[in-house]
Amino acid sequence: MRNDPASTAAAVLARAGGPGNVTSVAHCMTRLRLGVADPAAVDAEGLRALPGVLGVVTDGAGVQIVLGPGVVEEVTARTEALVRGAGPEPAPPAGPEGGVEAAAPRREATPVKALLRRVANVFVPLIPALIGCGVLAGLNGLLLNAGLLPALTPALTAVASGFMALIAVFVGHNTAKEFGGTPVLGGAVAAVVVYPGVAKVTAFGVHLVPGQGGVLGALAAALLATRVEKWCRGRVPGALDVLLTPTVTVLVSGLVTLYGLMYAAGVVAAAIGTAADRLLATTGPAAGLVLGGLFLPLVMLGLHQALIPIHTTLIAQQGYTVLLPLLAMAGAGQVGAALAVYVRLRHDVSLRTTIRSALPAGLLGVGEPLIYGVSLPLGRPFVTACAGGAAGGAFVGFFAMLGDKVGATAIGPSGWALFPLLAGNRGPGTAAAVYGGGLLTGYAVGFAATYLFGFTGRSRAAAST
Questions:
Q1: Domain limits at 45?
Q2: Which residues are catalytic?
Q3: Which residues face 33 on adjacent strands?
C-alpha cells in the first residue's frame, strides 16, 4: 500500500528539525534533498525508520531522503508547501552545550564533499531536460539513419538541440542561485559563453568559438559573477545599488569570461575528452573495472551527481559520454546480487517482497531501492554487487579498447532505459550489442558472486532451512 505523500512530507519535516530548519527543498530522480540550517537537529535514524523511506544520506549542510521514482516528486511538492506555509521559526536546539550530538554531523561536511554537493545542486535540476532532449535526439538519429519522415526530422533536431545549445545559461542561473547571487545575473554572464558574436573576439591570440568551455566555462563565469555582485553590494551606496551593481557585475564578469575563463575552460574541457578517450583506448578493461566497481559507493553517498559536468562536457564535445555506460554497469551488478538474495533467502518473505517491488526500477537503472532496501542492510551483497558492476564495466571497457566505443547522448537513465540513448563510433547497433553484453555480464557476475560469497555461515544456514 502506497504511503500518503502529505503524511510522509510532514513526518520528514518533523525529523529534519521542523520547517524552520529547512533552508532549501529540491529533488532528483529518487531523492528528496533538504538544505538545513542546523544539521544537529536532523534525526537521521528517525528518518530511516519512516515507512516509504529507502535510505538517508547526511552531508553536513543537507540531508538526502531516498524515496524512489514517482513518489519523490509528490513528497517534494508537499514538503515545499509545508515549508512555505510555516514561515520562519527557530530551529530546535542542537543539544546540551553543543556537545557530541552537534559535532558529529558537522564532521561529515568536509570541504570536498560540500563542494561536490553544491555542484550537484547546480546540475540536478537540469536532468529532466537532459533526459527528454536526449531521448528525442536518439529518436531523431534513428529516423535520419533510416531515411524516415524527412519533413519531421528538422523540427525534431530543433526541439532536441535547443536546450543543449543554451544549457550554459541554465547552468549560470542555477550556479548563482546555489552560491548566493542573483540567478538572472549568473545566467546573463554565462550567456556570453554561447553568444555567436564571441567569434569576433580574440583571446590569447586565437578567435573564440561560441560554446568554448561549455558548462565548465558557464559555471566559472557565474561563480565569478556571484563574487563580484557580493563585493558590489557591500560597497555601493543603497541609492545606486540597483543601477551600478548589475552593471558592474555583468561588465567585469563578462570581460573576464571572454578574455580568460572561456579559453581556460576550453582547455580543461578538451583535456577531459582526451583523457576519457585515452583512458579507454589504453586501459579499457581496467578503467571499466574501476569505474563500474566504485560507482555504487558514490551513489550510496549521494556524490554521483557531481559527475554531471563531466558527462555534459563529453556530450557537448563528442555527441555522447563514454563514461555513463561504464558506470551504468554498477546497476547491473546490483540487480544480479538482488536476484541471488531472492533465490538464497527463499524463506524471508519480507525481503523477497522488497526485491520484487524494487527489481523493475533496478532493471531501469534506478538502484537506490535495491541498495537501501536489500544489499546495503545485508552487507556482503553490497560488496558482491560492486564486483558484478566491475565485471560489466570491464566488458564494455574491453570493447572500447578494441575501438568499439559506447556512449550515451544524455544522462539520467541507465539499465535498460539507456538503450534509446546509446550511440557510438560504430553505429547504434554495435553500441547496443556491447552495452547489452555488459549488462548480462554484470547480472551474471553479481548473481554468482552473491550466491557463492554474499552470505555468512549463519545466513547460509538460515537460507537452507
A1: 5-109
A2: 28
A3: 26, 64
Q: Do 211 and 324 lie in a common domain?
A: no
On whether the CB atoms of residues 423 and 372 are closer than 8 A, the answer is no
> Which residue bears the cell 551527481?
305
Q: What is the pLDDT of residues 354-413, one digit of tens each?
A: 899 889 888 988 888 888 889 988 999 999 999 999 999 999 999 999 999 999 988 877
189 in the same domain as 263: yes
Does residue 437 share a domain with residue 304?
yes
Phi, psi dihedrals of residue 108, rounded to the nearest 5° = -75, -20
The sign of the torsion formed by the CA atoms of 106, 110, 111, 114 equals negative
pTM: 0.79
287: its cell numbers: 578503467
Q: Evaluate whether 149 touches 139 at the Cβ level (below 8 Å).
A: no
What is the average per-residue pLDDT within 220-242?
93
- Which alpha helices (H) appear in 41-149, and where do they start and end? 44-48, 71-86, 100-107, 111-123, 127-146
Measure Cα distances from 420 to 139, 141, 248 in Å. 7, 10, 46
The total number of structural domains that make up the chain: 3
C-alpha cell at 316: 557537448
